[in-house]
Amino acid sequence: MAYSEKVIDHYENPRNVGTLDKEDTHVGTGMVGAPACGDVMRLQIRVNDEGVIEDARFKTYGCGSAIASSSLVTEWLKGKTLDQAQAIKNAEIAEELALPPVKIHCSVLAEDAIKAAIEDYRQKQK
Ligand code: FES
Ligand code: FES
């Protein structure tokens, strides 16, 4: 299958690969797996006192589209409020990366990872 140029760019130069301190109360961690293929994505956000995401990191064990999707969303997340981040849809990711139908679930993984990271952060604030 041919990958789009944007997928190849993110795959070859992934942005924001790495890890934030899971124990930090400002950090939310989302870990999700794709039942369809077994790929795993971990996405972390650091949220400042104004509720704005100031950093995002990912580690993805998966296909090129999953890596590109997570790399792309780490770029999108920075500077967004939690509500804005929550509103990111997998369809926007798939469109930006021109993912073919069989790779749509890779972008779903990224949307799910964002939601899981936000949920983890919100739980920590209780
Ligand atoms: Fe998951 Fe391709 S099936 S890596
Ligand atoms: Fe399963 Fe991409 S995440 S093939």
From TrEMBL:
<dbReference type="GO" id="GO:0016226">
    <property type="term" value="P:iron-sulfur cluster assembly"/>
</dbReference>
<dbReference type="InterPro" id="IPR011339">
    <property type="entry name" value="ISCU"/>
</dbReference>
<dbReference type="InterPro" id="IPR002871">
    <property type="entry name" value="NIF_FeS_clus_asmbl_NifU_N"/>
</dbReference>
<dbReference type="GO" id="GO:0051536">
    <property type="term" value="F:iron-sulfur cluster binding"/>
</dbReference>
<comment type="similarity">
    <text>Belongs to the NifU family.</text>
</comment>
<protein>
    <recommendedName>
        <fullName>Iron-sulfur cluster assembly scaffold protein IscU</fullName>
    </recommendedName>
</protein>
<dbReference type="GO" id="GO:0005506">
    <property type="term" value="F:iron ion binding"/>
</dbReference>
<dbReference type="GO" id="GO:0005737">
    <property type="term" value="C:cytoplasm"/>
</dbReference>
<feature type="domain" description="NIF system FeS cluster assembly NifU N-terminal">
    <location>
        <begin position="2"/>
        <end position="126"/>
    </location>
</feature>
<comment type="function">
    <text>A scaffold on which IscS assembles Fe-S clusters. It is likely that Fe-S cluster coordination is flexible as the role of this complex is to build and then hand off Fe-S clusters.</text>
</comment>
<dbReference type="Pfam" id="PF01592">
    <property type="entry name" value="NifU_N"/>
</dbReference>
